[in-house]
Design goal:
By secondary structure, the chain is mainly alpha-helical. It is 72% helix and 2% strand.
């Protein structure tokens, strides 16, 4: 059971990292918890399955889902969050929960309440690791997650946009005084965060061959647990916490699954770690970290 659990844990951890990284980036700059980001996860899946039915291509579906979700993130940032940011962190949090709920209802009304199949065939073959079969879709998820996360790390640490993000996260007023357009930086931040969530949604729907309106419910709560564990606003800590939660969930479900439902494990881990280390696994930080 060890090798299958390890592969499944890394796969789920990769998905969680894609979902939670966008939320961590947004918190790093704006200091708000954008629960509506989970709506992009479901939106990406629905756009992906729609495009796949038209084109038969999983990668076009992946790009289309990310593009549409990124557009949603930009629109929400520009016309929804900007007017209420001065109200403090609680108002945007409550508003984002309302947006997330409204998005779920919109998906239900537009696409129907039933599960839609996503029978995409990935180009990677099934392989065997220590005699255990590993599906091609699992390899695809891990590969895409590695490429996307490494690309995000490069953008944050080695580009002018990344420098602007880090400066805005550390002190937005000083960054603006130095000539950085904070609104533009925040807009690109939302574009990236929502695109990452959509990529996760498409990959998960391909993995489980299912898309449905409420598929973002549990990820919305798990994202909050993960970014707290990783240190609020710490991207590297978020990635590490995602992999840890994915592995812990999988191994606990495999060996003592009869004691706890799988989806509750992340929150039990959150409670235990916060009792031992209230600041999370990593110290709280901004995008700079």
């Amino acid at each position: 059971m060890f090798i299958p659990s390890l592969v499944n844990g890394i796969t789920m951890g990769s998905i969680y990292a894609l979902m939670a990284l966008g939320l961590s980036l947004v918190y790093g700059i704006l200091r708000i918890l954008d629960v509506a980001n989970a709506g992009a996860y479901t939106l990406g899946a629905y756009v992906g399955v729609t495009v796949f039915r038209l084109t038969g291509s999983w990668w076009i579906a992946l790009v289309a889902g990310a593009a549409v979700a990124a557009s949603l993130g930009f629109i929400l940032q520009r016309f929804f969050y900007v007017p209420i940011l001065a109200s403090g962190p609680i108002i945007p949090l409550i508003a984002s929960i309302g947006v997330f709920t409204a998005l779920e209802e919109a998906y239900r009304l537009i696409f129907g309440p039933y599960i839609i199949e996503f029978p995409a065939r990935v180009p990677l073959p099934d392989i065997h690791v220590a005699g255990v079969p590993v599906r091609g879709v699992q390899l695809l998820i891990i590969l895409v997650a590695v490429v996307v996360l490494v690309g995000t790390w490069y953008v944050l640490g080695h580009t002018r946009m990344g420098l602007a993000w880090r400066a805005t996260a550390q002190d937005a007023e000083v960054a603006q005084a130095m000539g950085i357009d904070a609104r533009r930086v925040t807009g690109w931040n939302f574009l990236l965060g929502y695109a990452l969530a959509a990529v996760a949604g498409v990959l998960v729907s391909i993995n489980y061959d299912a898309v449905y309106p409420t598929m973002g419910d549990m990820p919305a709560y798990k994202m909050l647990a993960i970014i707290v564990l990783g240190g609020l606003g710490n991207p590297l800590g978020t990635i590490a916490a995602s992999l840890l939660i994915g592995l812990v969930e999988t191994f606990v479900a495999a060996y003592v699954g009869f004691l706890l439902p799988r989806d509750s494990i992340a929150f039990v881990a959150l409670i235990i770690i916060l009792l031992v280390r209230p600041q999370g696994i990593f110290t709280r930080g901004a995008v700079a970290k």
